[in-house]
Amino acid sequence: MDIRAQVAMVFHLDKCIGCHTCSVSCKNVWTDRPGAEYMWWNNVETKPGTGYPTLWEDQGHYKGGWKVNGNGSGNGNGKKLSLRSQNKLDAFIKLFYNPNQPGLEDYYEPWTYKYQDLFDAPAGDDQPTAIAISQVTGEPMAIEAGPNWDDDLSGTTLYAENDVNLEGLSDEERDQLFEIQRVSMFYLPRICNHCANPSCVASCPSGALYKRGEDGIVLINQEVCKGWRACVAACPYKKIYYNWKTGKSEKCILCYPKLETGQIPNCFHSCVGRIRYLGVLLYDADRVADAMTVNDRALVESQRSILCDPYDPKVVELAKANGISDEFIDAAQKSPVYKYVMKWKLALPLHIEYRTMPMLFYVPPLLPVMGKLDNGRYENIMDGFFTSLEQSRLPMKYLAKMFSAGNEEIIESVMKKLMAVRYYKRSLELDDLDLVSISRMMREGNLTPEEAEEIYALTALPTTYDRYVLPPIQREEAISGTCSPELCKGECGLSFSESAKRGL
Description:
Layout (H helix, E strand, L loop, with lengths): L2 E10 L8 H10 L12 E5 L11 H4 L3 E9 L5 E4 L7 H4 L16 E3 L3 H4 L11 E3 L36 H8 L7 E5 L8 H5 L5 E3 L6 E3 L9 H5 L5 E4 L4 E4 L4 H4 L6 H5 L5 E9 L3 H4 L7 H8 E2 L4 H9 L4 H8 L2 H8 L4 E2 L10 E4 L7 E2 L5 E2 L16 H8 L4 H22 L5 H10 L4 H12 L3 H4 L7 H7 L16 H6 L1
Parallel strand pairs: 1-15
Antiparallel strand pairs: 1-12, 2-7, 3-4, 5-6, 8-9, 10-11, 12-13, 14-15, 16-17
Helix pairs in contact: 15-16, 16-17, 16-18
């Protein structure tokens, strides 16, 4: 066993209000500069919807992530992983032209406004306006797209029906989403997943991308990056961007200069809904490739199988032998991420079928679960507590396509547990459910009262120190990692090389 430490995350989607505060906070700190105007290292999408860049989930077109039984490296079970985006024969050719590379039209052309016209316009009968100006060409432009262009438009046929995850849903299941009386949506905040099996790292011909051994954060060495953009094509989540000013690729760095000093990343710190949790997971790096070669429906459990129990003496011993500090092990034992992912099994990876083993997990949204009565009214079905899941406003098949590689049983188990917590807490305050019904719900949801109280406390009542369990780091190590012109060695998504200084 090769025990590694990973700074991992959980986003609780039931708590996200889609305010985009996280996106703006990240933008102001990391990508508010020439060449990065169109980059949103953190963005929030409305689902169902097409996302950013448009239809990024369509790997039939973008060819991101891994596939099984290609010309990859063997991993002991007779199966192999290989990149979808390239192989040994066409990798060189695709450095010069890659048909699966997203273009600016797939993102959007960034713009500002000619604000000076508001002050310089001559006196007249009409109110002067500030016209839109492209931040790329400097020319006037018509605004036709943006990073959250379909925000809150999940019920429209123009955007939501193009969602890749709707493929395979029946007409009845689609009606559950698009009937005007039942229009439903949820918000999906996205940052780099800092995957344990990152396809971006494997695709880079110059070796600029790497995964830090001490915390698992995936970074780009700006001094080594040649701007080939193979990583952009290989990342299935499209969370690597090309800076057209510096000619380098850039990505979310998980605010590692802040993590090294015990601070919280910007998007986490600014989150209004308090949906974000950050902690440490221990995993067996020897089994990563093997775990990602199983069939799609088994991928979630396969990933769980290589996440290690931080209280296991053998795991602790091997972790220490691998140089993992006592502080990191202690953080892993107190990790809120471990509780959501492993103890309660409520948090799931986004599109694990891309086989990158993402280390950002989501608690799927428990929207109002509704039943349709004969008289056309919609209301909760109390008698058939879990049978109403079949008629929930977000079909189980849709959620399964996003969070469990199509395995609806996993989604249903999560939904049952979330619903059991909700009604258990309700029963403590109201008398509309008898003890027999509550006992049955808890049993079917595979939940104890003690677990329900724990889940409720970490979901609804957590302090900052409950949500973010960060291991301390020695100050001299943090100083060597801070991002400043004097100290930076070009090991992150930002560069202070002479060329980059001129670009800024």
